[in-house]
Amino acid sequence: MARATMSEAAMSDDERLARDEATVRREFWGKFGRLAARIPFAEDLLTAYYCAFDRATPSHVRVALLGALAYFISPLDILPDLLPIVGLTDDAAILAGVVKLVWDNIRPQHREAAREALARLSDQSSA
Fold first, then answer.
1. I need a labelling partner for 99 at 20 to 30 A (CA). Which of 46, 59, 75, 89 fits?
2. Domain ranges, ordered by start, for the chain
3. Which residues contact 49 (CB under 8 A, 6 or more apart)?
4. Among 126, 20, 105, which Cα is nearest to 68's?
5. How many CB atoms lie within 10 A of CB 110?
């Protein structure tokens, strides 16, 4: 375990960002798809996703958003997502806090992309 901590400490911020970005890209849509119907903050979550992957978004904002998104996909959770009613509460709180901090960097095109993705998912589940 100490070895992981040492390698983590040896990572530069850019390496950590690249690792977190790759993890979110790889795992986000699978978890989102499984839980989309139960997520009352789905549009905000997708807006954060599109803002985080927008290269025009400043790096410090991308880092904060990727951290919140990584927490959402993490199997280790303060409140397990499978618990009825409260399971996604911690995810929502973290996302809300980060979104509040980076609000000025969330653009209308991020929200529009989120709405379009939700519409596509809704169409797919209806078919």
1. 75
2. 12-126
3. 24, 28, 65, 69, 114
4. 20
5. 21
Helix, strand or coil, per DSSP, at residue 37: helix
- Residue 72 dihedral angles phi and psi, to the nearest 5°: -60, -40
pTM, full prediction: 0.79
For 29, other C-beta atoms within 10 Å of its C-beta total 15
Task: Quote the tokens at residue 109.
Answer: 């095109």
- What is the tens place of the pLDDT at every residue in 6-39? 555 667 878 888 888 999 999 999 989 888 878 8
CA proximity to 27, closest of 65, 63, 75, 90 = 75
* CA–CA separation, 94 and 104 (whole Å): 17
Q: CA–CA separation, 113 vs 26, rounded Å?
A: 19
User: What dihedral angle (degrees, nearest 10) is formed by the CA atoms of 93, 97, 99, 104?
Assistant: 160
- Give the residue carrying structure tokens 């992957």: 53
* 43-98 pLDDT, tens digit each: 999 999 999 999 999 999 999 999 999 988 887 766 665 565 667 888 889 999 99
